[in-house]
Design brief:
Elements: H1 10-23, H2 36-43, H3 47-59, E1 63-66, E2 70-73, E3 80-84, H4 96-99, E4 126-131, H5 139-148, E5 156-164, E6 167-176, E7 191-192, H6 194-202, E8 207-217, H7 220-226, E9 233-242, E10 248-257, E11 261-265
Parallel strand pairs: 3-11
Antiparallel strand pairs: 1-2, 4-5, 4-7, 5-6, 6-10, 8-9, 9-10
Helix pairs in contact: 1-3, 2-3
Length: 295
């Protein structure tokens, strides 16, 4: 149970009390919280304090306020684990293959989507092209040019969204030092694995050069794509992939909803499973006895 420092505002102490009830299962996911008057009477505080406490829980993504209906407890976020093996990972296969089964080859080459790939809400899982915006000299474009050691005018850019479980989880931007890119490759809505697709378009094999992790607040564009409030913390995974001779060939910057994904670094080999010692099914031979026959 969290403790409250002496100077903690009253509304925040109330928010923690409600959080403790939710964590204990008193208010399961989908349950409507008691109304403002009910909470005000139960805890002996005014309705403004209750309103502030509920707003605090909403900012923490614990509850959802539905105007004119009530306040409801959110279901716990389901996180996708993306395994990263720092000991052996060398070739850049993109991030989709690590989170989706059956995408190691980049998905359907012709861009078709089968009924089996549809989720219950009609969306599909995978990576989808948003567009190929011109490299305009923005701060992101300038950083990509610096990392690839090229002028911005020499770069091409593709933006994508990665959907898992029927919802957008990450927005990705790729820069490559060649172009123009084939129209079929950057067609909005086209599914695939852009790392592999771009490598094929360039006729090269990509290897990891470096990757870095950070965090930012969602800007208006990313917030709309990820369906989160502006300013929501996003994980940022960025880095350069190169050709086997070390020439920078791709700069990628992924913005990931941190409430629904995590990266797992595996530093140790998994321990082999211990099997129970096998015993012979033959009964043991009796110990030698005295010689038989007449003495």
């Amino acid at each position: 149970m969290a403790t409250n420092p002496p100077k903690t505002p009253l509304y925040r102490r109330l928010a923690r009390r409600l959080q403790e009830r939710i964590d204990a299962g008193a208010y399961p996911a989908g349950t409507r919280l008691p109304s403002e008057p009910e909470l005000s009477a139960e805890f002996g505080v005014n309705r403004l304090t209750v309103r502030q406490a509920v707003a605090e829980l909403e900012r923490a993504a614990v509850v959802e306020i539905r105007r004119g209906v009530g306040t409801f407890v959110r279901a716990p976020a389901v996180r996708v684990s993306i395994a990263v093996d720092p000991r052996s990972q060398r070739f850049d296969l993109g991030s989709v293959h690590a989170a989706l089964p059956g995408t190691a080859d980049g998905g359907s080459a012709d861009g078709d989507v089968t009924d089996d790939e549809l989720t219950d809400d009609g969306f599909t899982d995978g990576e989808f092209v948003l567009g190929a915006p011109p490299v305009s000299g923005s701060a992101e474009d300038e950083e990509a040019a610096r990392q690839l050691d090229r002028a911005p005018a020499e770069l091409s850019r593709v933006d994508t969204v990665i959907r898992l479980g029927g919802r957008a989880r990450a927005v990705c931007s790729y820069w490559v030092p060649f172009g123009p890119l084939p129209g079929a490759l950057v067609r909005p809505g086209r599914p695939g694995n852009l790392v592999l697709d771009l490598a094929r378009a360039a006729g090269v094999e990509l290897e990891y050069d470096w990757r870095a992790f950070g965090a930012i607040g969602a800007d208006l564009a990313d917030a709309e794509l990820l369906d989160v409030p502006a300013g929501t913390p996003l994980l940022v995974r960025e880095g350069v992939s190169c050709t086997p001779d070390g020439a920078p060939a791709l700069y990628v910057r992924r913005r990931i909803d941190g409430s629904s994904a995590r990266f797992v670094l595996n530093f140790r080999e998994p321990r082999p499973e211990r099997r129970p010692e096998r015993r012979s099914e033959q009964p043991p031979e009796p110990p030698p006895g005295p010689p038989s026959g007449p003495r």
